[in-house]
Structures are given as structure tokens and as C-alpha cells.
């Protein structure tokens, strides 16, 4: 193992699908193909990324860690492409504690037509997981090696299947002629709160931790006649006739019967060198809390001169590596090196300017202690501040376009009937959103474990990764700014109300019950979003519901980006929102959302959304909903009938919503928007 490797790993077991394919081809026999399926970039980032379990028609797979992806890239002579987003890249470097991280897209290349070969050497390497399978014909439970794999059709990856070659059915041998039957994944796993995942030890479970008394390799069966009712299967050893139901492993009582976590990361094919002391929990293959991505994203804004200089220095440092110090004083050699293989154009720089770039590139990187201090003090709001500042700039003329970032803004006049609390409207005709994956968690979502870094499962076996995967989305949107003076006065009033006190107490209960093991070290109030966030968030949701009726996109295709924070050191207060729709597999969207930013249309949308928010089919229950001890829900007058949105639209999983902060409802006078007839 190298000094940077932090896991126990056997390189002989490296995942190399294309290498395995070449070995099969050398045998001159009909071989199984490497490709087993496909997915959209967005689903590989948010649903089926490295360490997640992806359902294929006949079995399940797990995308591997990024170390194995390098084998895919190395098969090409050209350097892997990069996504240019310096502001996001710097945050990712800080979170991954690695100064050289680059952002790369998924390994993919478009094809001229469905049967052409372009891009066949690109793809996401994956391993079959779990590797315990059950025969659908006889219930035999066995490891992968006990079944035959078949994937020979060049254009039908859905036919890839594992089969029990000599299945005789549940009646046993002699009852019928052996035949091939499909094998499916055994659906039980073991997980721990630090992101480890392991196969369920069926052989030890049925024999209660002891070896089988009749056979060294016992014949196991998984008998399940009540699918869909939890852990309903029974594990049966046909060798010694012992049986044990899986429901014994459920719940608090069952947890004590499970083995201790071994510290396994199957996506890395590695174990923690010091093991893991956590208890394990029974998990199903399709459980929604099996994999939570930890991502960061930005709307790419035009770069300032300082940002451009910093980015150029970083590209020079990354391109030259050790050669930077060696040829630091030879500007001619530096220019030649950057022109040959560095891929950094400095031909337009004078010697003086190049010297300044080299000086910035040669600056020492942060020490580990400085990195930890930055990460500890970093606030996710810092990613939003530059976007907010740029969106507030005055636009010369009626339209401004930045070719490099792709951002195109157009001013919109306020309609006479638009609520005066909305002071600024922009049509975002084009935007580029970049999203990066920094890790993942299991059992608890990232916003629940952010203060416990060890619970963020790594994407690589090395402690200093050189890249992470990212996606680019292009689309359009509408930006609205609220009157800051009105918001500040309203917020000051809300902070002194009984309703806010009840929301704060509910948040404290929720935090202490569900924030893993770190709740005792953190003040829950520091994680409670301020009233202005509840206001902007609720407004965004009702607008999404109303816009979806006329813009041509579904509500699930619209998403929110919220700018809502009070004044703090280094940043001005913000109260605004961007509702956008983006697509990762096209050059943009169709303009239906931007059209609704026209004055007459927008005021009709806003007025209609606010009018509908005054009523809910669940009223008066919804309008009077307030958390009372011991309740710990994080919303007030909001439900799926009136405000709540789909998971793809909401950045806070439908938390921090309350219609009473928008409008005066019966029994409440806290509405920010005044009634305008």
C-alpha cells in the first residue's frame, strides 16, 4: 500500500470490466459483454452513485469507487475532460481535503447512431452486489460463483442474467428434469452509521454463529412465501436441517443478534484497517436510506479578474506539478512546457504577468490544520453569496450575456398589479448549473451528520483524491427579489411570537432525536433556518405549483434556489429566490418558464399562487397545524395539498414551510404579503 492509501485492499481483485472482456475475447469463444445497463448522469449523481445499489432487470450492481474509473480513462491517449467551475472546485477541494481535485464528467461519449461503436470504451465500472443470490425455482441460496452468468446479446443488456443451471424445483432432485432458472439478489444487507455496508452472513445466521455440523459448505435455502412484509424470509440449511427466520434480525431486539461491523466499503473493495466498532443494522437492498449523496452545486456566474487570475495560477500549478519548482526561473521553458502538455494558454501574457501567475502558483498550500479550520468555519451559504451579489447588479440595457459562463440575464419591468413586496424581477434566459459529488452517507442524510466527518463515506481509497465526478445542467429560470427593509421588519416581529417559539422548540426536539451522535455538541438553534428562509421557501413552493400549470414543465422538473440569510460578517442580508428548470442531456430548455417572467403573466402567476395559498383542502387542520411537545415536525401550515413539493424540487425535503408566514390565515396575523384587491 502507498502512503496515501488508507484502506486494506487487494489489487488482484481490481474491477476492470474491459480488461476482463479482452481476456474473454482471446479465448475465441462466445463471451459475455461488459455493458450491463445505462443511466442518466443526474441519476448517477443523486440516486445511483458510487456505493449505491442500482437495480437492473435481473440483478443489482454497485458503481465502484473513482479509483477504478481511472482504468477507463487510461485506455485513451487524451486527458480526461474537465468541467470548469473554479468556485465549486475550491469548495470540493476543501471538503475532500485535497488541493488538486478536479471536476470530471461521467465517462461517456455520444454515438452517431444506436449501433455505432463510439464510446464503447467508456462507462462506469460496477460490481455485482450483493453477491448472494437466490434461485427463483428451488430457493437455493448461494454465492455468485454457484450460478452461471449470461450476457451475450450486443444490444439487449436487459437480457443479462444469472442462472441456476441445474434447478430441479422446490420438490427436489428426481421430481423433474433439471433446467435453467433465473437467480435474483438475496435482499438483506448489514449497514452501519459510518457508511460501511456488508453482505448478510446467512450461513452464520442460520447456524447461530457456529459452523454447520454436517457439511463444510452447507446447502442453504431462502424460503419466502410472503414477499413485501418486511424480513419475512426463513433461512434453511438443507445439510443439517436448521432454520432461522430473518425477522429475528429486525428492530432493537434483533440488532443485538447481529455481528459487529467489519468496516467494509464494497464500492472500494476494501476494509477499514482498524476495523469498525459500530453495531450493524439490517438493511434491505432497495431501502431509501441505504445511500444519501453529499453534493454541492453552483450556478456558474461570470468570473471577476481576481477569480480569473486565481484560476489561471491553479491550472498552471496543476499542469506543471514538480516541474514548476524545477523551472521556476526559466520563463521560456515554462511557456514551452505549458504549450506542449500542460494545455494552459499563456501566450497572451507578458513576462511580468506570467511571473505573477507563477508566484501565485508557487504559494504553499494550506496545512492540514488550516484545512480543518477552514472546513469547520465554512458555511454552505458561502456558495450562494457570489450568485446573489451578481444577480443584484444593475444591467446595462435590457439584456446581458456572458459567453464563458453561459449566463444570460434580461430585465423585466414590474407589473402594476405585482405585489410591492417583490422589488426586482429577472429573466434568466440561460444558465449553467454544476453539481459535484463529495461522498455519501448511509442511514442518516448528510445534513444530519455534517459535524461528524468520519460518517461521510469516501469515494476513493486514497486520502488525497485527484478528482471527483460532476455534472453540468443547462436551463432557464426566473429570479425574484423581496424588499429587504420589509423582510427585516417582518422577521424582527416574527422572532418574538409564540409560533416561532414553538417552531424552535420542535426543531430542537427533532435535532436531538435524529442528528446521530453529534447533537450534544451543537446548539440546535445554529441549524434552525431564520424566519426569512421559511418565508422565501414557502413562496418558492407555491410559485412552483402555479408555474407548473402554464409553463409546460412538470412541477417535478422545476427546482428552487433560495437566497435567504440575515446580515453577517462578510455578507449582506438576502431575501430572494430563483426558480429554474435544467437538463443535463441537452443544450438547455424550451423557454416556457422564462416567458412567464413577462410583467402581465408574472403578476397573474404570483397573485393566483398567493390566492390559492389562503385555502387548503385540509383546512382548518392544516392552517392551524403547530408542533406541540412531543411532536418534532419541521413545518407549520403546510401539507401536500397546498405547499409541499416533490423531492426533486425542494432543497430541504419539505421542511421549514408555513403558509402563515406568507399570508394572514384565520387566527394568525403574521403574513408578509398584504392583501391587494
Structure description:
The model has no long low-confidence stretch (mean pLDDT 88). Helix 7 packs across helix 9. The chain has three domains: 173 residues, no CATH class; 61 residues, no CATH class; 247 residues, no CATH class. It is α+β, with helices and mostly antiparallel strands and 677 residues long.
Oligomerization state: single chain
Q: Please provide the count of β strands.
A: 25
What Rg do the Cα atoms give?
Answer: 28 Å
Which spans of ≥5 residues are poorly predicted at pLDDT below 50? Answer: none
Fold topology:
Blueprint: E1 8-9, H1 17-26, H2 41-46, E2 54-55, E3 60-63, H3 66-74, H4 86-96, E4 102-104, E5 126-128, E6 132-135, E7 140-143, E8 148-150, E9 161-167, E10 179-185, E11 188-191, E12 197-199, H5 202-206, E13 220-223, E14 234-237, E15 243-245, H6 251-255, E16 264-265, E17 270-271, E18 281-284, E19 292-299, H7 305-320, H8 323-326, H9 331-342, H10 351-361, H11 368-377, H12 381-391, E20 399-401, E21 408-412, E22 422-441, H13 446-449, E23 467-482, H14 484-494, H15 498-514, H16 531-547, E24 559-565, E25 574-583, H17 592-595, H18 599-613
Parallel strand pairs: 4-23
Antiparallel strand pairs: 1-17, 2-3, 3-5, 6-7, 6-10, 7-13, 8-9, 9-10, 11-12, 11-18, 13-14, 14-15, 16-17, 19-22, 20-21, 21-22, 22-23, 23-25, 24-25
Helix pairs in contact: 7-9, 7-10, 16-18
List keywords for this structure.
677 residues; alpha+beta; 3 domains; eight-stranded antiparallel β-sheet; 26% helix; globular; MZB
